[in-house]
Amino acid sequence: MDDTFKPTDIKCLPGSFSSAWQSPSNIAIVKYWGKLPGQLPANPSLSLTLEKCHTETRLEMSRRDTAKEGFDVKIYFGGQEKPSFAPKIEKFFSRIEPYAPYLKDYCFTVRTDNTFPHSSGIASSASGMSALALCLTDFERTCGQTTAGQDFSRRASFYARLGSGSASRSIYGCAAVWGKTPAVENSSDLYAVPVPYDSVHPVFRNMCDTVLLIESGSKSVSSTEGHALMDGHPFARQRFVQAGNNVEALAAILREGDTEAFGHMAEAEALTLHAMMMTGEPYYILFKPFTITAIQAIWAYRRDTGAQVYFTLDAGANVHILYPEAEKDKIRDFIEKTLSPACGNCGFIHDNAGTGPGKLD
Fold first, then answer.
1. Same structural domain for residues 126 and 244?
2. In a domain, 47, yes or no
3. 281-289 long-range Cβ contacts below 8 angstroms, 24+ apart
4. What count of Cα atoms within 13 Å lies in the side-chain half-sphere of residue 257?
């Protein structure tokens, strides 16, 4: 148990409580890949927060008649009860219980939905776990256990991290860092912090991200399994040092507004992430043929037109296409009329860097 965040000490628990939050997904430009014990990152990461791809979650709490050993959780996704989702929430609760000892005093109903397709390759664990963490932190704030502002956000990010590492970054708008780095003041392995808004050049504050949906459904190797395979990886040590250096370089790029350097960093980090997968033991490939098709088409279009269009990848087959808002019309025309048809008429979602979570009525 970490001493930075003290357990809540609510003297008079309310009989019921309800809170609803909208929280976004994010796309890491410098990737987090590899964990230390306690759900801590092996290297720092830096992400852009998305705007349209978000999760809306309502948490309903009611006091139990008697104290029980286990957690009482019901999950509804898209209006349908999903008992298969409950174990993940219960695992999350078990991780945060030392800091939130009230969890076994309540029955929980979680009603959640995404604005993007489930299992589309967009990080729903980031948006979903951050939304749930915000609801719980809101409960603690209502009970006088935390304050508004920085304390609230850090505790929510701390909780979110214990559900999904990347969820810690979704607590903040624009850009966020998770992991200790000299590039951003007050950064921590325990929670994410925002990259100061005035340290982000305007070109990146509304950077566009179109997600090309090459593949849907479960991956052959989950992110949890992929992180574990970095243990003993022959290039792990070098990779963790590289990622730390890249976060420092990217922080400077964001200040300076250098879109070409940003794009180079995004692409190099994406390919490095997948190189780690292909050179571990066991090795594996999450690319699909259309992933390569998309990358090569983006490179060709950039070479032929001079457009500022770049890509990054998550731990899957889908491609995130990054470009400035000023070039949105022509690049989206390329995506819709050329790139999607070249990739089997795959679907796509147009998004952009956004302002972060918000409380719902």
1. no
2. yes
3. 281/229, 281/232, 281/233, 282/229, 284/220, 284/221, 286/219, 286/220, 286/221, 286/315, 286/316, 286/317, 287/317, 288/214, 288/215, 288/317
4. 8
**Under-50 pLDDT residues of the chain:** none
How far is Cα of residue 197 from the mean position of the Cα atoms in its chain?
19
The answer on 134 and 26 residing in a single domain is yes
Given the DSSP bridges, would you call strands 319-323 and 208-213 parallel, antiparallel or unpaired?
antiparallel
The closest alpha carbon to 23, from 48, 56, 49, 52, belongs to: 56
Of the residues 176, 203, 230, which one is the last residue of a structural domain? 203
Q: pTM for the whole thing?
A: 0.94
Q: Do the domain assignments include residue 151?
A: yes
> What DSSP assignment string belongs to 219-231?
-SS-HHHHHHTTT
280: CATH? 3.30.70.890
The reply to whether 3 falls in a domain is: no
